[in-house]
Amino acid sequence: MNVIANEREAIFPLVTSLFVYGRLPPGGPVRRSYSASRSDGNCWLMAVFLLILSNQPTLAQTHTISGYVTDAESGEKLIGASVYLPTLGKGTTTNLYGFYSLPLSGDSATVTFSYIGYARRTETLALRQDTRLDVELSSNTLLEEVEVVATPEENVVDQVQMSVHKIPMQTIEQAPVLGGETDILKTLQLLPGVSFGSEGSAGLYVRGGSPDQNLILLDGVPVYNVNHLFGFLSVFNTDAINNVELIKGGIPARYGGRLSSVLDISMKEGNLKESGGVFAISPIAARFTYESPIKRDTSSFIISARRTWLDVASAVASLLDDRTFGYNFYDVNAKYNHKLNRNNRVYLSFYTGRDRFFDTFNDGTDRYTFNFRWGNLTSVLRWNHIFNPKLFSNISASYSTYNFFQEYRVRQEGTDFFNLSRSRIRDLKLQADFDYAPALSHSIKFGGMLSRQRFEPDVVQVVNASTDTTFNNQTFINSTNIEVYAEDEISITRQLTTNVGLRASGFWVNSEAYTNLQPRLAMRYLVSPSLSVKVSYTYMVQYLHLLTNSSLGLPTDLWVSTTENVAPQRSEQVAAGIAKSLVRNRYDVSLEGYYKRMDNLIAYRDGASFLFQNGETWENKVVAGNGESYGAELFINKKQGKITGWLGYTLSWTYHWFDAIDDGRRFPFRYDRRHDLSLLVNYHLPKDRTLSTTFVYNTGNAVSIPTARYQGIAPPGWEYERFYQQAFDDRLLLDQRNNFRAPAYHRLDISYQRTKLKKKDRQRTWIFSLYNAYNRLNPYFLYEQDGRLKQYSLFPIIPSITYRLEF
After folding, report:
1. Most-buried pick from 283, 417, 571, 726 (CB within 10 A)?
2. Could you list the residue range(s) of the whole structural domain that residue 85 is in?
3. CA dihedral defined by 212, 217, 222, 228, rounded to 10 degrees?
4. pLDDT tens for residues 495-552?
5. What is the bridge-based pairing of β-strands 667-668 and 63-71?
6. What pTM did the predictor assign?
């Protein structure tokens, strides 16, 4: 009884401090980004939080089993591995660093460790004291002959969090994609509630949100631009990735800063046992990965690089013409990890990538040069420390930056005109996260973050023979963001488990200060061992905005900060659903409904763009508005057997409204799609062969189409003689934004993989794929010609061959 009392005494000061000091001291006038009614409405969540903590049953806790779960062959940490107590029907999973903690009572315990593609391991332990048990799991090679398991063994029924998808790297590598280049984001687009913008785009639109509302983390560091090849490919090299998790709703308090989703990607740590690597080549790019121990079982590294060769073809074409043009990209991932001792490990991660598009040509005596460059750089130094069997910490210092550079130059006789446009965002962050397991019924996470950001959204310089002018060169903005959080996953009864959390944030920019309390709640009730009901509530605040004119993820998209004149975005989302396991846990079925309200969305006002206009800053080009999204999602996932895969279906509505657009009338979001269907099927054939297919169908995008044409007077001051034959010109009348639906989009992709083991443990894989197998001409954009509406299509049927060698 005294043990429990002490635990409560430790928890309540932490929770109380969050409520009291969550409203951080301002550095100037304080502006709250939620109304009084919303603040009052959140009080019930705080009351529930305190009530649950204060009414936990007394537990005779005695000893704790803890340790790491790793791959026996490489020493790689296994994220999300199941640690289960069969006699109690309870357990836990390893965290993002492969660590688990399991407080137990009694004289002995039987613990089962399991993970996708690995043989189970069961340990029976005498509980005389706290026990450190590091477990190595061996790959189960018999799975290839007997059955294939395609998802982690913890089923959707047991998870407290809803709207969560953990995608195995094997599934991502087998899914057919454009050009045979495996891509994480393209595979995630096949999930319900997740859609793509336009044909081939790697962007994610989650439950009616836009790409900037997704928190995308690479080893815990935010990545601000995730696109290569103008959005057709993501920056993530799958050969360097260990774990992928997408959270669409019920987002726990440990995540913040975005409205729609969290995509948490972890890099591999490097093989601690032996050296090896991967080489792959596709029609788009070539990539190489190498990992090796520096000191066996103590330190290791991994380095992975990828580069396209699309510029090779353009270089050959340039030989036949007086023109130099091309496009290329590269990315590099590197990571070093070192085990200082049993309780301390350090990691250093690094990523950099860059795209470049260039075009130079001569027109008589004139010479024109056009040059685009953009790219990311992230780095993080991380320290894992085990204070005791119940308390684990991760302390990190990280840096992330995104740069965009555009150059346009015209050299004519006697004149040299030079236009330079650039933007940048830099983010320096210190973060501390703690996992605390006081009892089997509690799993507490808490921590905090301090970040310093610098925005340079729109700097333009124009130079010619007579002038040297820089516009908006003082538009850089510095901001400071402090956030703290606490969450507790609590088993109230055997059937009812909740995750209750609170995140407090403060954001200072110039003379303005914003503070917010962001409550989170997720509940799961087990109706039976194979059926559960779940509900969640999430309140999110986002202090960043992305200004964009298109869906392509172009480098001209500008990251901007909340300011005195532009308020932070915020959203509230409620969701409810059921989860069911069928046929001895071979199938997972979930059905969810959700409603999300979004406030303080910004967009360019009509006629504005990223280009400078009379020295205007970006704040003068935007308007603010609101949005809502609601719908239902069905997910059927077959996890085991020769045939694996999933079926996802989404029925949804998404609307926006802005006072300055269409007189405040509500209009469909451009990517509001009533129906969205995705099917992924992997057929595992004998002799290491796999046949994979994907099929997608969705309602066409909402587009703006003029409804009438009339004669209007040309704008005053225009040179009629040069641009017009008369002082009147054709004008188009648009009755409402996004008033028309493009034709439906559907496509079938097929991929066949053949793997063969060669000498010296080398494994060779040939991948043959067809993108758009039945040559559907899907609309990329619509345009008018000769009084008729026509469509432009981008990708016909595209075959590709990819070669992969593991050594």
Report:
1. 571
2. 2-149
3. -70
4. 999 999 999 999 999 889 999 999 999 999 999 989 999 999 999 999 999 887 654 4
5. unpaired
6. 0.87
